[in-house]
Inverse folding.
């Protein structure tokens, strides 16, 4: 058990033994002290609840301290108006080294939970290349998936293929236009069509496969172009995502969902919340969370996108998901409450769906924003950015800030090979440890009582705190908390490396203990980097 948790349990037992039975573990706070002169840990328990037990805070603190017993604690003191400070024995803190060395990459894993999250992310229309918004969503969704698995949850990673509707029809017409161009036949690209190089390339592949078989001007054969275009675009998207270290357990087709379910039956199930207006059918989502009612069927009889979206989320729940997480761009803000409302109409809790929004990304070069035009097909592609700065920098930078914050991606920083680049800084810390461990003949040992320097104790505390970081990051869907931890651990590793010797033949026992601590640090650092999809190279 972690010292922090042990202290909480001990304090709760004392309260119960003193007759104060209205407390739970959640009421008790124990924090790590940054200033070691105030002890390793402290609690505000006596201050926080003195009124509840009708005692003066210091009097209450004295009562707790006088009943406190623990083999892990060297001494206690009461500070200020009633804070309780705990000074931990060094050999108690150092237990974390053996725990990490034994558990390896499973260190920090939280208890297994019988709860399944379906996490949907990217889900880009199969009509072109992935852009920066998709890249940020991919990095966020994949990192959340990894963190939730580490936290003990079951995870289904899902990609929704939007292969029905106007976008893919425009793709089909754009592809046909480029194909006919190869035969000097004019066929207008739609106003909302796709003019990028990828469509021209796919048209050439289509010609190589089919020759002049589909040169008819009419639109009867558009489905052939549509299916071929979707297939090729999806192949490219999947390859780009795989290179980005993002893979999925499930790919679900919108067309398949429409065939799988009777949309009219869904409308009937929602009928008590439906009404007609101006020839369209509306869903009264304002009865729940929405700010206005939403159409299900347009006045011309076509389904809106809202209807298949409802059935798709219903389908995800029925595939044994306890909770759904959608990672979407900020332009989907109005989408959240309407969909939650529809699911509530079907009998589900509003909390079954959670939506993580990603804000815009700006690419900065030499202090200026790099601007491109998506309409003309020359927007900055995810693939281009990866080729410029590498997967590691892309993955790390995209999750290093809260997803609801705008992100300025500075190319200069991402390419720097010094401490200004947080990815380089963290990876270099790992590489330094790898070099020390691989070049030394001194064997690792467990003489951890020799590790009595403040920085060594601080490093051990940082390792001890790893599972709390995992817990916080999983609850808040916040990979940036992992990045913050990576920087904290890397900073202490660099400082440790600069101040002390690790391969001293004259102090083999001390050197071996220090190497054990370094090895434990490398295991946790590598695991933390992996949680955000970043590699840990042995050499740099």
């Amino acid at each position: 058990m972690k010292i922090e948790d042990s202290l909480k349990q001990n304090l709760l037992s004392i309260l119960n033994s003193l007759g104060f039975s209205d407390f739970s573990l959640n009421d008790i706070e124990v924090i790590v002290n940054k200033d070691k002169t105030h002890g390793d840990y402290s609690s505000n328990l006596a201050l926080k609840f003195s009124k509840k037990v009708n005692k003066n805070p210091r009097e209450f603190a004295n009562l707790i301290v006088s009943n406190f017993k623990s083999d892990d604690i060297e001494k206690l003191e009461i500070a200020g108006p009633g804070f309780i400070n705990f000074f931990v024995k060094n050999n108690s803190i150092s237990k974390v080294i053996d725990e990490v060395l034994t558990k390896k990459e499973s260190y920090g894993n939280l208890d297994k939970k019988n709860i399944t999250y379906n996490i949907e992310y990217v889900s880009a229309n199969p009509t072109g290349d992935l852009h920066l918004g998709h890249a940020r969503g991919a990095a966020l969704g994949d990192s959340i998936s990894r963190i939730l698995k580490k936290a003990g949850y079951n995870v289904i990673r899902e990609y929704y293929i939007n292969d029905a509707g106007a976008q893919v029809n425009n793709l089909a017409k754009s592809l046909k236009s480029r194909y006919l161009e190869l035969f000097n036949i004019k066929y207008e690209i739609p106003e909302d069509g796709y003019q990028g190089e990828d469509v021209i390339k796919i048209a050439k592949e289509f010609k190589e496969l089919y020759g002049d078989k589909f040169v008819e001007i009419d639109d009867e054969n558009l489905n052939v172009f549509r299916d071929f275009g979707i297939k090729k675009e999806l192949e490219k998207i999947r390859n780009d995502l795989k290179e980005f270290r993002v893979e999925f357990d499930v790919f679900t087709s919108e067309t398949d969902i429409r065939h799988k379910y009777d949309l009219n039956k869904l409308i009937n199930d929602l009928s008590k919340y439906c009404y007609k207006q101006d020839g369209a059918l509306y869903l009264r989502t304002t009865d729940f969370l929405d700010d206005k009612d939403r159409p299900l069927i347009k006045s011309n009889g076509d389904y809106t996108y809202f209807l298949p979206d409802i059935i798709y989320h219903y389908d995800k729940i029925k595939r044994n998901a306890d909770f759904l997480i959608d990672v979407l761009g900020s332009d989907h803000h109005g989408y959240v409450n309407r969909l939650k409302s529809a699911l509530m109409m079907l009998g589900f809790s509003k909390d079954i769906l959670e939506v993580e929004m990603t804000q815009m990304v700006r690419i900065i070069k030499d202090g200026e924003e790099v601007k491109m035009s998506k309409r003309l097909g020359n927007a900055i592609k995810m693939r281009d950015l990866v080729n410029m700065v590498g997967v590691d920098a892309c993955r790390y930078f995209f999750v290093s800030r809260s997803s609801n914050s705008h992100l300025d991606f500075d190319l200069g920083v991402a390419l720097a090979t010094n401490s200004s680049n947080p990815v380089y800084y963290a990876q270099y810390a790992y590489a330094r440890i790898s070099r020390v461990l691989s070049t030394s003949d001194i064997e690792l040992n467990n003489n951890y009582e020799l590790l009595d320097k403040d920085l060594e104790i601080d490093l051990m505390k940082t390792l001890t705190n790893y599972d709390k970081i995992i817990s916080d990051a999983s609850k808040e869907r916040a990979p940036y908390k992992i990045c913050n931890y990576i920087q904290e651990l890397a900073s202490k590793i660099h400082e440790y490396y600069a101040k002390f010797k690790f391969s001293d033949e004259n102090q083999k026992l001390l050197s071996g203990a220090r190497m054990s601590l370094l090895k434990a640090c490398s295991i946790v650092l590598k695991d933390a980097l992996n949680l955000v999809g970043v590699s840990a190279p042995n050499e740099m």
Remarks:
- The mean pLDDT is 92.
- The first strand starts at residue 31 and ends at 32.
- The first helix runs from residue 3 to 17.
- Residues 358 and 403 are 5 Å apart (CA to CA).
